[in-house]
Each structure stands twice: as C-alpha cells, then as structure tokens.
Amino acid sequence: MEGSQSTVRRATFHLPFEIAIEILSRLPVKSLLRFKSVCKSWYALIKTPSFISKHLLTQSTLNSTSLLVTTCYYGDKTPKYAMSLLSNDGFSGPIDFPFLTPTNYHSISRPTEGTCFRVVGICNGLVCINLSRFGFPLILCNPSTRQFQEIPGAEWNWVDENNYVYRISYGFGFHPSANDYKLIRIALYLNTLFEENIRADLYVMSTGTWTKIDVNKLSLFFGVMNELWEYDNIVRIDGGSASAVLNGVFYWPARVGPNIVPTDQVVVMSFDMGNEVFRKIRTPECLGGTWDEIYWQFTELDDKLALVVSHQKSGFDVWVLNENESSWTNQMKGVSLPIPRIASDMGNGEDVESTVVGGGNNGELLLTRQNVSGDIKLVSYDTKTQQTKDLCFGHVQYESGLYLYVGTLLPVMQANEVVLN
How far apart are CA 250 and CA 271, in angstroms? Predict the structure, then answer.
C-alpha cells in the first residue's frame, strides 16, 4: 500500500497531493486519457477507483454537461448509426464503436431481423443501448473512454410463435444502497388469444446476472377483470427508457385503458431497485386527456421528480412530486422562456424545436434547441432566477437523438476498447 501511494504521489510533480488530485479531477476525460501516457505513475493514478469516484463527483458538481448525439442514416440501403459527443469545445468526432455498423458487428445474440438503435439509459457516463426491436442484444458502453461490452444473457428464450412482444420499456441506473448499476427490461406481449401479458427482468452489473421479477409484483399493471374475462384498466408503460432515475427508483409515464385500446389517462409507474416493487402514481389534473395534445415531459429537478407542461400561448408549468408521492406541487406556472434570444442565432427565422432533456440539483432545467437546418444548442434555464445560459452549440446533418451526458472514467466490466484517434 505504501509503495502504491508513493507512486501516485510522484505523479503530481511535487505539488501537494490533495491539490494535484483536485486539479486533475476537474479535467475532462479526454485530457486525462492523454495524461495516462505521460508516465507510469500518472497512468496508475488515473486508474485508481478512488480517483475515478472523485472525478465523477467533481464533474457532477461542476455541471460539466454535454450532449450525446446519435444519428441514423442509410448507405447502400442498410442502416448505419453514428455517435458523438458535443461539449462547449465542439464535437468530439465520431465514436467508432463496431456495433454502430450492424453488418460489421457479430453479436452472440443478435436476431436476424428487426435491427434498430435505441439509447435505453444513461447514468454516470455509462450508456445502455438496445440493438433490435426484440430487446436484445444490449450494449453497455462509455463513449468518453471508448469502452463497450455486450450484456450477457440478454436474449429471451421464452419468446416463440405463441408469444408476440410488441412493446419494451427499460430503466438503467445506479442503486445507491447497493453501490451497483442495474437494468430493468419490461415487455408487453400477446399470446395466441391476443391477451396482453407482462414480464420484467432485472440485470445486476456487479454479478452479471438476470433475475425474473416475481409475477405477483406485476399485478399492479392489471385492473379489475370484467364479465368478459377482460381487464378494464391495463397500465402500459410508454415504450422506451425511464424518464427519471432518483435515489434508486425508476419512473416512467404510462397510459391506462382497456385491453388493446389505450386511452389518454396518464399515470406514473415507478420501480424501486431495492425492494423490487412497482408503484402507480397519479399525475396532476393538468394531464387529464392530454397525452398527445400538448408537450409534456417528466424529468429530474432538485433531486425530485418534476413534470414540465408546455402551453403554446401561456408558457410552461412545472409540477414537483412531493416526498410521499401522493400529491404534486405547482412550483411554476405560465413561465415564458426568452426563446427569441436563443433562436436568433440559429438561422433566419426558421422554426425551432425546444425539448426539455433534464434537470439538475441546482434548480436548472436543461433544454435542447434544434432547427430544420440541423443547428442544435444546449441551454440551461434557472428556475429560480429565470435566466438562460447557452452551454454548447453544434450542427448535425441528419435527424438526431440528443441526450444529456457527463463524461466519466467509469469502466465497463470486461470491456472491449476502441482505439482513440
């Protein structure tokens, strides 16, 4: 232990050890990866779990937020995908993960059809990706370090001609109590009688194992059975990734309705990674019958679940879920963003799409702005001072998926690695 400590201390070039760690922890991952080749002692320092944890905490505190940009385009009639990072320094350049080109990546579990590319969760610099509409294979990667790994055991052996999976939802996040990362996959499927069923499986990163969630814990998804032996109020999670992950709990928007036919009644479904229990949470009355009529988004704000509802003429409202999860507080009402100032440098009066992509612990909402020419911008809005701040700006050639991202050194277990340019 003494020897390793002295090796690490020599990496600081006679700076006080604590000061050197503080300086290095404030640097982006790209710089730290270059510093690993300076000398063996720096290499040893940057790989230590204590420094990786310190760097993650510092980057989160500094709000070193960038955008993960994913695009899909077609070449030779086959889909190709691209991934890059956009920060205040501009684009990182394409990240050449082999799984981004389906024809070049040979997965142990890839289906022969149904290829797709979907980001199903991002947490502490780790990104979970689904590569087919069947829910597998699943990839865990770190775009900052260029490491990736296919999650083992993700294929479904129970799916056959008698069971048709038609909607899959995911949640990927950190479970603080267990100090572990977990992934849940929830499948809605039909049997030969066109009856809806549900199945959920949980993956634990540290053990690399999948566990089927007890079917009794899924009863909350089904309402009361009527005289026709049909369920009147089935809860269907909106297919995709969890809208928020807070303190080891996933949250998804969901619709409630009779068998096969969805309605506009909106609820929130949650899943606690600790006790593995689902809960159904009522939404504010403002969402009654408006699933497709207005723009709304669940996100994290000051370590709480927040609902942002945008009204075209009267600005937007912010509702915050109270600690007991039984009621909501209307924290902001009819707030108008200073959109003209943001949009004025993004083209000549073109329509600009604004989307809430997240929130922070300092009362800030983070929005992306995108126009038809492909200009994109990440903007922060302080809900306390009602001031906006431009964080980064770039241009994309194709329609893109935009996700909040904080670069970290967190390793991907048994990872493959792409050589940095």
Answer: 5
CA distances from 5 to 8, 9, 10, 102, 257 (A): 5, 6, 9, 45, 61
Q: Are residues 167 and 219 in contact, defined by beta-carbon separation less than 8 angstroms?
A: no
**130 in Cβ contact with 136 (< 8 Å):** yes
| Strands 240-241 and 164-175, sheet pairing | parallel
Q: Where are the beta strands (DSSP E) in 302-421?
A: 304-311, 315-321, 328-335, 352-359, 364-371, 375-382, 388-395, 400-405, 416-417
Report DSSP state, residue 384. Answer: T
Q: Kindly indicate the confidence band of residue 239, based on its pLDDT and cuts at 50, 70 and 90.
A: low
Cα separation, 199 vs 168, whole angstroms: 10
180-190 and 78-87 as β-strands: parallel, antiparallel, unpaired? unpaired
**pTM for the predicted model, two decimal places:** 0.84
Amino acid identity, position 142: N
User: Could you read off the pLDDT of 252-292 as tens digits, one per residue?
Assistant: 888 776 655 555 578 888 999 999 999 888 888 777 655 55
